[in-house]
Amino acid sequence: MTVVTVVVDAPTASAPPRRYIGLVTRALAFGIDAALINAIALIVAALVGLTFSVIKIPHEVKVVAAAVGGAVYLLWTVGYFTTFWATTGQTPGNRLMRIRVVPASGTRLPPRRALVRFLGLTLAIIPLFAGLLPILVDDRRRGLQDFLARTVVVDAEEDEPATLPRGGRPAPPPA
To answer: Are 105 and 151 within 8 A, CB to CB?
Structure first.
């Protein structure tokens, strides 16, 4: 009779699993960002309105200025989210809630994918927030915007910063 001994390797030490962030925390962060975006836009609009009340400007110019102001507000909103997600992975609202948007692959989020994520978020919100419902049932808490941009939202304290050190170059290896 032959005895076969099977040796099983001990599990390797791997990184702890990421903690994915749910709907409520993400909604609070988005609310903080929306308040900040609108507060700045309101201040700028008040200054422009004050200027227009002091200077005599034809009605047609005011109509064109209002249209330009709407376009600038849209660009400001898109640029706000896209820039923060592509550079640090955190908007100010995300930072306050201690969450970070990262690609599922773990690399840095390129600006193009950050823009796709913003457009996906817009599409997710339009049909009565239906695009956000997968966050409630997905194992990695991903919504439509996350599926489209291939991102996840994780606890920022557990995740390493996705940015390069100051100067944009990796640190030199130790001597």
So the answer is: no
Burial class (CB in 10 A: 0-12, 13-18, 19+), 144: buried
Instruction: List the domain boundaries for the chain.
Output: 23-155
The whole model's pTM is what? 0.81
Render pLDDT for 11-63 as a digit per residue (tens, 0 to 9). Answer: 445 566 789 999 999 999 999 999 999 999 999 999 999 999 999 999 999 99
Annotate the chain with three-state secondary structure.
CCCCCCCCCCCCCCCCCCCECCHHHHHHHHHHHHHHHHHHHHHHHHHHHHHHHHCCCCHHHHHHHHHHHHHHHHHHHHHHHHHHHHHCCCCHHHHHHCEEEEECCCCCCCHHHHHHHHHHHHHHHCCCCHHHCHHHHCCCCCCHHHHHHCEEEEECCCCCCCCCCCCCCCCCCCC
